[in-house]
Amino acid sequence: DNTQLADMITLIEQQLQTVYDPEFPVIDIFTLGLIYEINILEPEQTIHLLMTFTTPACPMGELIEHMVHNAILEVYPDRTIDLELTFDPLWAPKMIKDEDLQRMFE
């Protein structure tokens, strides 16, 4: 049901707002624009995230993936979490969802 899926995605977005890139500790990864897509795959019981890092050589990448995984498992412990990394498009400050925070990068 679409309402249930929308509610799940909202809850996942809220959870992602508790995850911070250690290199940008003032902005969570969702607001930072690192999450490109969230898909709920039924009946596979899988949550698929298409995400990126601020740079392809992000030294904290593995840690961020681990934190994302744990944040979603807190609310959906019985789901499979499928993280897909992409650098197309490359992350840029214009992807930050908050205009005031965007200005910090100008």
Uncertain runs: none
Query: For the largest beta sheet, what order do the strands appear in spatially?
Result: 1-2-3
Average pLDDT: 94
Distance between the termini: 42 Å
Choose one word for the global shape: globular
Rg on CA atoms, Å: 14 Å
Number of helices: 4
**Care to count the β-strands?**
3
Proportion of β residues? 15-25%
The proportion of residues forming helix, as a percent range, comes to 25-40%
> Describe the biggest sheet?
3 strands, mixed
Written as H for each helix and E for each strand, in order along the chain, the element string is HHEEHEH
Q: What would you call the structural class?
A: alpha+beta
Fold and architecture overview:
The longest helix is centred in the N-terminal third of the chain and has 15 residues, at 2-16. The protein has helices at residues 2-16, 29-32, 61-75, 99-104; strands spanning 35-41, 46-51, 80-85. The chain is built from 4 helices and 3 strands; from the N terminus they run ααββαβα. It is of the alpha+beta class. It has a 3-stranded mixed sheet with strand order 1-2-3. α1 crosses α3.
